Amino acid sequence: MLTYLLRRILIAxxxxxxxxxxxxxxxxxxxGDPAILLAGEFATPETLEAIRTRYGLDRPLPEQFAxxxxxxxxxxxxxxxxSRRPVLEELKTYFPNxxxxxxxxxxxxxxxxxxxxxxxxxxxxxxxxxxxxVLALLGVSMPVFWFGLLAILIFSVELGWFPxxxxxxxxxxxxxxxxxxxxxxxxxxxxxxxxxxxxxxQDYIRTARAKGLAERVVxxxxxxxxxxxxxxxxxxxxxxxxLAGAVITETIFAWPGLGQLLVGSILSRDYPVVQGAVxxxxxxxxxxxxxxxxxxxxxDPRVRYD
Length: 306
Fold this sequence. Notes:
The protein is mainly alpha-helical. About 75% of the residues lie in helices and about 0% in strands. The chain is built from 13 helices and no strands. InterPro entries: BPD_transp_1_N (IPR045621), MetI-like (IPR000515), MetI-like_sf (IPR035906), Opp2B (IPR050045). It is a multi-pass membrane protein.
């Protein structure tokens, strides 16, 4: 297991390096002059030149990338062009809020999607199965922004159960978490139902029932544990996607997370913050995938890594 872990870490290094290079090039090659943005439209040529020199914008792209990579290896993500604060401080301010929101969303998805999928699989072909699958289809197809606005209208404006937007108490987290997790809930329900139905048709399940084992033992000890392997994969990928894709939800509910920071930095062409935020998301996504792979050995003892 240790050898596999080290191998995955070594594989992740060129992946992250490629992400850094792609983001660096995409940001630098976008139209517009960041020096004008920093200094203003009426800045003198001398001021613009001084800004380009300060941020290294007057150097060739390969040299700019080498300087950025060298600073990155030292833990220096640069300085925000808007707030003049270190990028690392900006990320420390916003990223924990996104982690809280994404964690709450995936917990909502796991707590509702997996039980619904189990119920649908155990009642295959019934009205309950049909109803769960219809709800799952609606959940997958429903636009997040539409569901978020509808949730605000019903539960905040009409009923007054939850705050409309912002971050403060636990009540502020409910609607954003449900909105962000609705697609993951539907996906996990469909995945759990499909894999469990397939596992329940296997010979070893029939053998376990023929031995007289209790149905709950057959379901939860033998069938569900094997059916959860692809579900864990999907849940891990969904968690990584929630961390990177909470922009719309954070905008609707004015949640001060990484998505809002990233959008504002892109619009203002704040290169250091954009690069730092994307790199942080890529690192987190890679780490989540690694953790999912390591969970396989715990869920299924037959899984081993050479």
